[in-house]
Amino acid sequence: MDKGRSMNTVKSEELFKKSCTLMPGGVNSPVRAFNAVGRNPLFIKTAKGDRIKDVDGNEFIDYVCSWGPGILGHAYPGVIEAVQKACVDGLTYGAPTEKESILAEMIISNVPGVELVRLVNSGTEAVMSAVRAARGYTGRDLILKFTGCYHGHSDGLLVKSGSGLITNSIPDSAGVPKGYTDCTLIARYNDPESVSELFEKYKDKIAALVVEPVAANMGVVPPAKGFLEFLRKITQENGTVLIFDEVITGFRLGISGAAGYYGITPDMVTMGKIIGGGMPLAAYGGKKEIMQKISPLGSVYQAGTLSGNPIAVTAGIETLRILMEDKDIYRRIDEKAAKLEEALNATGKVTVNRVGSLLSAFFTGADVVDYDSASTSDTDAYARYFSYMLENGIYIAPSQYEAMFVSDAHSSEDIRKTVDVIKEYA
Ligand code: KE4
User: Does residue 111 contact residue 271 with C-beta atoms inside 8 Å?
Assistant: First the structure.
């Protein structure tokens, strides 16, 4: 693997050499390995505001933001203080706490369609559990997802997925018995016909349709006009549970996520990232009649040792409190993202998709409206762009098929610096 080029990455290289003897690929999540951009990963030591610093002292303006949680910026003082204070009262009890109800109430009061919510530890767990609840509620087995959408790594959803799978060109994972995915139907994002065909064929057998209301794991692909309305209608007509996977868009596109942004009320919503404020916390919720199927109330089992962990919940409460108190954050981060979009478009080299503070630059001349058009991107060109940005102090996703995230901590000066670096690239 090429070493880091003009930057001093000696310590990162040493640490990577060591980590490769201890963990698969030297990382704890594949996309971090930088495989798609032909470099070895940088090991990060500290992060503050919109900046991260690696172990060799290189500093970057960060647009990964830990893949989304960092909407306030890294090490936000209010969140850190709240977490530090909470730690002295113990890290975990395995028993109910008032804080879980506080966070649950914040979610229920802001997220359309959520009447009851269950806190879990990761987006994967949230989507896996929501699907099980939908199956338990409907008594049906089939689920429908879209090519290029990623809903975590639970077996039944690792089919034609996005994120690290398309980054590593393995849309289907090994190790998943065929039987596990026999119940997973695949349609094309933004293609109503591909959905209608499946409902005509499987009519009242589809338990749930899971969708990223704004796809962000094949790069950012907005829903075409009327697409989400179409999904809402066809699922309603067929008694299928509509699950909005808002692990990325939840509290990102606004305080009510994509459901609020597009004015669609799903039957269930999964969330993660921002609601944990950077700590391992996710959630799934929905209509009472569905969520009441969940144990111990109902017969759908789901559990977790650290579910609702008081420290993670504290970080989540503080983060959502700040977002609820200063909704102007969303205008600010959207405006910053629009400046990046404008600079990228001005290069004439990329197709830019943006929704709010989520954006992607695709190295293709095509409009990017689904997995097939996203796949026309020149990933080598993206890799060159990635290295150029990195060597100029800008840290973006090490994959063409991920999003850029903008936080409230991104200063106007750093946005300007990023725009200048993009302009020089042209
Ligand atoms: P986690 O299990 O990684 O917390 O969440 C899974 C998940 C579910 N749904 C959506 C829409 C998601 O985007 C994700 C995870 N997102 C990726 C980034 N695209 C996580 C980064 C990684 O895998 O390292």
Answer: yes
